[in-house]
Backbone:
DNA sequence: GGGGTTATGTTGACAGTGTCAAGATCATTC
DNA sequence: GAATGATCTTGACACTGTCAACATAACCCC
């Protein structure tokens, strides 16, 4: 029996994830169909169902993978900056991930899984852990530089919302102008820093 | 001929938009199918195609309507606050619109139209005008209160990104906790105000 | 090794989707 | 009153996710 004509694929689970990522990058979530994916993996339409409960589960698996990647970037950034908090670098790295992996980012934070679909237990855990780590790390970076009456966790969440908003605007095709995008993110950082340097609020 | 059995609907265009909004609110974009919509309007599957080129065009029309609503809210807010800029109120109003009309907001700013679909020329115009108005209005609110070296337009865009990010997080089902959401948005406003009150940046 | 169990892969089928083509009906206009 | 265009209908097609039933291979225990 030749290797090409064997009945069992042997590594379909991983192959599916890999090919799915390829299709995702090429045509977006809306262009990712299980049937095309199966064909691409050289397997029949329903074979993927033996490895993922349904399409939603597959997408959750992709998102989980992506969270691991972003997690690593965030952790590395938080470790590197160490005692000398560099929010600018942090934001740049975060934005870089989102703009270089727009479809993954969409999957991680978009309504496809969180609202329309049903996020896997696994995805929920990974995502929440990621949120927590992010918030804690960032609030550690901000420690002692906050305006009076500010809650470090809330500040971290608010500034994350800012960065996230920038990512969404870019990813969703609203800021088509790359130059504008950079200027705006630059200004966002400046804004955050200005807030941090102020010692008074009301 | 009875009114119920007449061949021509008479007001299908508007009826479609209205019923589409109902379906949108009830089941989201992903639950809005042209066939269900046609049935709901008491008309055959392909009748809508005589009033909208395709599904994308119908969704663009819905988004255009929604932009008009948000536009009005923004304009009213900017006029009301007048000489006494009240960013807090502005943010609250914006967030209110988004949380009360989540599906419309998704349509207005989501990838459904801007990335996956093809935004109508009309939608583009309305949207860009809305963006511009928003940015100009907000930057007028901020005038004279900015940290040195800040570009008012950029600040407006950056703070819009913050608000937009909060909206997305809520709408996409990531901040399920309403209480958290309010605290974070509160903090975001505080952050912006703190930045404005600071006279120095870097 | 042989037989039963489980994992994996296949074909067939179904309901649902957007959309095109061709024809039916009505409203309007010359 | 006939012709033209707007509106609506049925029929059809390709595509989607997913279930049921069956086929094949791998694995494990006696």
Residues:
């Amino acid at each position: 029996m030749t290797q090409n004509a064997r009945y069992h694929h042997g590594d379909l689970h991983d192959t599916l994830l890999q090919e799915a990522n390829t299709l995702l990058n090429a045509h977006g979530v809306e262009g990712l169909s299980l049937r095309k994916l199966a064909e691409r993996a050289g397997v029949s339409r329903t074979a993927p169902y033996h490895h993922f409960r349904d399409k939603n589960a597959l997408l959750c698996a992709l998102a989980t993978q992506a969270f691991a990647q972003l997690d690593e970037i965030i952790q590395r950034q938080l470790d590197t900056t160490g005692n000398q908090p560099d929010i600018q670098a942090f934001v740049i790295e975060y934005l870089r991930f989102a703009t270089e992996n727009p479809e993954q980012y969409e999957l991680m934070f978009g309504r496809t899984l969180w609202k329309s679909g049903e996020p896997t237990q696994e995805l929920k855990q990974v995502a929440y852990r990621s949120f927590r780590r992010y918030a804690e790390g960032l609030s550690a970076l901000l420690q002692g530089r906050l305006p009076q009456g500010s809650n470090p966790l809330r500040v971290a969440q608010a500034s994350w919302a800012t960065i996230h908003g920038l990512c969404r605007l870019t990813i969703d095709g609203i800021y088509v102008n790359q130059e504008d995008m950079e200027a705006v993110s630059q200004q966002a950082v400046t804004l955050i820093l200005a807030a941090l340097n102020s010692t008074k609020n009301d």
Notes: Residues 6-8, 33-35, 45-46, 49, 54-55 of chain A lie near DNA strand D (CB under 10 Å from a C1'). Residues 77 and 89 of chain A are 8 Å apart (CA to CA). Residues 55-81 of chain A form the longest helix (27 residues). The domain at 55-197 of chain A is CATH 1.10.357.10 (Tetracycline Repressor; domain 2).
